[in-house]
Amino acid sequence: MQYEIKQDDKFRFIEEGIGEPLLLLHGLFGALSNFSGQIDYFRHQYKVVVPILPLLELDLIHTTVGGLEKYLHKFVEYRDYKDINLLGNSLGGHVALLYVLRHPERIKSLTLTGSSGLFENGMGDTYPKRGDYEYIRKKTELTFYDPNIATKELVDELYETVNVRMKAIKIIALAKNAIRNNMGEEVNQIKQPTLLIWGNNDAITPPFVGQEFHKLIPNSELHFIDKCGHAPMMERPEEFNTILLKFLRKLNEPAAVA
Fold this sequence. Notes:
- The protein is of the alpha/beta class.
- 38% of the residues lie in helices and 17% in strands.
- It has a single domain (6-121, 182-251), classed as Alpha/Beta hydrolase fold, catalytic domain (Rossmann fold), CATH 3.40.50.1820.
- The protein has an eight-stranded mixed beta sheet with strand order 1-2-4-3-5-6-7-8, sandwiched between helices.
């Protein structure tokens, strides 16, 4: 299903449904289509919001995880979202971590899936390798347990991006900044209920990363999805949505009486 991309001031985003905001943040090579399974599923119960992060539009000095967090803050303030259920995949999870630590008053819950912020296998010093389609195809396939999910359309889109010199420079800048911006000493300050959904076969942020987040974030729960890579919401949307819905519903249940 195609959704309208709204334009409000300088912000571009999808917003579907009514209710509590469920705000979804894509990763470095992500796009709005990454969350099509979640928009379709949750728009009947939540206001599903997917901002287009300006990954390659910021000036080079602000092409950082912190720069993206500042952009997200301006977007949330401008739209005045409150009690947000914030979800991020990969780099989007890293941005979500920074945001919840800086602006906890806006956030009701946090969900991370394949998030950077502690450890990730970089694409290597030569990445992105311009002009080598086969190299780009193999790197795209690494994202998934099932390489067939790396469709020609997906590979073509990435190939086109990395063959623009300034875009390639910004991708490298963001990837290196994410690796340097380790949050191991900060995430224990997160008070919000936190859901961790990890692919058991994630080659970029392997399962031990999910376990480490679980150990460090006090009020967290961890779920693994088998035969699944770095983008569970794309690769196994039904299992992902079932886990997320159960978590979100639990937040609204009255506290058990001792």
